[in-house]
Amino acid sequence: MRAASTAPAAQRPIFFFRSNRMLVARGLTKEYQSGTQRLTVLRDVSFDVPQGAFVSIVGPSGSGKTTLLGLLAGLDTPSQGTVSLDGEEFGSLDEDRRAKLRGEKVGFVFQSFQLIPTLTALENVQVPLELSGAVSAKEATTRARDLLARVGLGDRTHHFPQQLSGGEQQRVALARAFVNEPRILFADEPTGNLDGTTGERIVELLQALNRERGCTIVLVTHDITLAARTQRTIRLRDGAVVEDIRHEPSAS
Description:
The chain is an alpha/beta fold. The protein has a single domain, classed as Rossmann fold, CATH 3.40.50.300. The two termini are 28 Å apart.
């Protein structure tokens, strides 16, 4: 059954029509013990993310955004509730299978880039493929070169992180995140350390890669303007979902 939309039929974003769910969160609650107090960071969070969607999660500091991202990516376990990624529920998997699932289907981009300083841009991008052993060394190099060219760094392949600007380092991180052809990308404040112009370019790259590769993207950000560029925004406050907005597609 199609969800209601006020957009003209020719402009409706594809994700409204897809029934296959890449990510399913049900009743997520996360609590921590602090001395004699029990702190609740997330409260009964539930939503679905269809395959190919570009979704942002926003909220003030302390609202639970990063905690939620960790649960959705299977990096942490909820106190209550479940998360399923591409049909597999994290809670039913042992840690080895969880790690394998992340390695095969998940990409990550962080605010701090997390590049290996002793490796070149090309070598950094190749790391996920070398760890997985899924392709030959020649294929790994070809994929890494192609992705660096795609993010505008074809002439910077042999530069080390310290020789690159912040925006260039984040583009290397994007190429690395996409090199294993993930089904879903989790991005935690990817423009947080960048100026406005550079951050805008990163957003445009994320949008393009989402369109070109059909990769689902879940983006955590404090930037409302950036969130409005995604297809849907989930707003958190005090650990709970207070708003879930579908954005109209731009007329570009």
